[in-house]
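BUG: 3D viewer hangs when loading the predicted structure for this chain

Environment: internal workstation, default settings.
Expected: structure renders.
Actual: progress bar stalls at 90%.

Input used:
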Amino acid sequence: MVGNVTTSLNWLTAVETERRAAGLRRDVRPRTADSPLIDLASNDYLGLVRHPEVIAGAMTALEKWGAGSTGSRLVTGTTTDHELLELELAEFVGSDSALVFSSGYTANLGAVTALSGPESLIISDAGSHASLVDACRLSRARVVVAPHSDVDFVAEQLASRTEERALVVTDSVFSADGDLAPLRELHGVCRDNSALLLVDEAHGIGVRGSGGRGLVHEVGLAGQPDVVVTATLSKSLASQGGVVLGHSKIRAHLIDSARTFIFDTGLAPAAVGAARAALTVLRREPSRAMDVLDRASELAAITGVGTPESAVVSVVLGDPQRAYDAAAECRRQGLAVGCFRPPSVPEGTSRLRLTARASLSQADMGRIGQILGHVLAEARV
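Structure tokens produced before the viewer hung:
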């Protein structure tokens, strides 16, 4: 019997109806190059996406190497510029070596799966980014989810494990709330129990630490052989791609075993050129990192939330539809903000997620205050 072609998709209709009823339906909203909106939604923390030197860096690499990297990193996808970027990133954060991936997501997948596997234990913070969660699921290791920033729980799990190898994974700056992981304490219990600590600095590089070198550098853990750092090039460094930073033995192991490095096409040359140029600007203008935190503090004062520890200012509204409607009203009034709803955040904590940018002017901040003051007064009723 030949069935109706569309019947196999009927379940999607039911799922969509449920999502709409819960206020969880999402849409792709293309932006235009000349958008008049003030941007508090992107992760362009240092305001470098349109910086002339960053654009020139991308164009120079494009003209030099062409549009694509032409293959995987182990075949034709590694250029001399890739290696220069790795050297520059490692030197900047104080690491022994670096390995660039096509995205921050693939960097986390590659690092976690290659450093774990069967007969090992992974302990992941409950607030870890989705890329770390997916990496844990793919690792084939025994995975334990630790309550958020609970160092004692991590210590207990490490001490009682039966596996020889263990890996603790966490964000340095958590993407939804913008709070900081207790990295010194986590490193202490990892070292006491012969475990590796892997820290995702996606929201730390460019914002925390001396000149934006990240929270790992700030707390004195840079270059420690039992600390692995991952990061993205798509936030503070205004480009695309990801990187794993750590001991040279880690780099060598990832080249041999990280599937997202071996089987993925290398990062496009233009992205490499843009990231190198952005890093050059940051090194020359380290005050941009402090400017981000200053703007974040101003946003916190406007919205009446606690003093932020990062570029992320989270305004919890609770109900997903209320958060969606508030974000839509901000947009109508000329302000782009993030709207985080489950599963990005826990049930009952839907929110506006505001991201500070070093290049926001005082005129921008004045207009932001007007818009958010009106919208939040309505949303909080």
